[in-house]
Design a protein that fits this description.
By secondary structure, this protein is mainly alpha-helical. The protein contains 2 helices and 3 strands. It folds into 2 domains: about 55 residues; about 35 residues, Herpes Virus-1. Helices cover about 55% and strands about 10% of the residues. It has a 3-stranded antiparallel beta sheet. A hairpin with a 4-residue loop joins strand 1 and strand 2. The protein is rod-shaped, with a radius of gyration of 31 Å.
Length: about 100
């Protein structure tokens, strides 16, 4: 009876070790997936910022194409710039608009 108990305890200990090992492996895999998800989120956020920074602040669709003088802000597309007398960033009176295309 004593040997049977010892054998059962040994079997249970091995099963517990195996389960713990599996859980540790799964936790490691999940941590790796979480880190990959964080990296993707960071990359997507950077892409969103670039898109936002290069998109017209008025229509939020077309690319920025006009430099306002004298303030030197670049914040609008050509179409929206025609409607403006003042810079939408700092409200400076626009004396000149220079059109360009970002490469």
């Amino acid at each position: 009876v004593e040997r049977e108990r010892e054998a059962e305890l040994e079997r249970l200990a091995l099963a517990l070790q195996s389960a713990e090992r599996s859980q540790l492996e799964e936790a490691g895999r999940l941590e790796q997936e979480l880190e990959e998800g964080r990296q993707l989120t960071s990359e997507l956020e950077a892409m969103r910022r670039v898109r936002e920074e290069s998109t017209c602040c008025i229509c939020m669709e077309a690319p920025r194409q006009v430099l306002f003088l004298p303030c030197r802000h670049v914040c609008c597309c050509e179409s929206c710039s025609h409607q403006l007398e003042r810079c939408p960033v700092d409200r400076t009176l626009i004396s000149e608009q220079i059109r360009f295309t970002m490469a």
